[in-house]
Design brief:
This protein is mostly beta strands. The chain contains no helices and 21 strands. Strands 1, 3, 4, 5, 8, 9, 10, 13 and 14 form a 9-stranded antiparallel beta sheet that branches. Strands 2, 15, 16, 17, 18, 19, 20 and 21 form an 8-stranded antiparallel beta sheet that branches. 31% of the residues are buried.
Length: 220
């Protein structure tokens, strides 16, 4: 399966309008944004856990990066409320679940060789703070939250590649209006020019090569 696999083409998608696709686990469904592969895939998805659903224990062969969009995501290590961000590097494992249901943004098999930092960032007490909150930076990737005031214009330069997800509010990109679950992926050189809507906008932003040359190899 291949979805939005040409990384030279800008992609702007209102993911909340995409259909849900069932996963192998009952009660766990996905909206597929980027995918190369079948059930084991280099992939970016929105994943929805129904109440009292769980995914079987699995090991992250190529790493896993998650943002919790709503509800409370859980595993045997703890609870992760909406706004949480974490990175599970290659070799880590867990049993993901949600007692009350949740929605998460997930990137799979996109870690680099040697990227072994396991990081958990829970949301700040004041989620309305304007400006930038850095989540992760190792020189090859910068991951952050950008919060814009209502009507604010922004330009995010893009030397390496840029990916963004609207977490809350409204964002105008040209004549396109994005709300929660609006996903943006731009090849290097295409700056992001956007204007926040009347509710402002909160974005998850990744500044990094869209696929690293030393990305973990998938099993053949």
């Amino acid at each position: 399966m291949r979805i939005n696999d040409d990384l030279t083409i800008p992609v702007i998608i209102q993911a909340s309008e995409l259909p849900w696709v069932a996963s192998p686990a009952a009660g766990v469904d996905r909206r597929m944004l980027f995918r190369i592969g079948d059930e084991v895939a280099r992939a970016t998805s929105i994943v929805r856990y129904a109440r009292r659903s769980a995914f079987p224990r699995h090991t992250h062969g190529g790493g896993e990066e998650i943002v919790v969009l709503d509800g409370v995501f859980q595993d045997e290590h703890g609870d992760y409320p909406a706004g949480s961000y974490f990175r599970n590097p290659p070799g880590t494992s867990h049993v993901p679940a949600s007692a009350e249901g949740c929605t998460i943004f997930v990137r799979l098999w996109q870690f680099r060789e040697g990227d072994d930092q396991q990081i958990v960032r829970r949301p700040s007490v004041d989620g309305s703070t304007l400006g930038t909150i850095e989540l992760f930076d190792d020189g090859s990737e910068n991951v952050r939250i950008e919060t814009l005031a209502a009507g604010a214009a922004t330009t995010i330069e893009n030397r390496r590649g840029l990916e963004a997800l609207v977490l809350d509010g409204d964002l105008m990109i040209g004549d396109r209006s994005l709300t929660t679950q609006g996903w943006i992926r731009l090849p290097a050189g295409d700056a992001l020019h956007a204007v926040a809507g009347p509710r402002g906008a909160k974005l998850w932003v990744k500044d990094a090569l869209l696929i690293h040359p030393d990305v973990i190899r998938m099993p053949s």
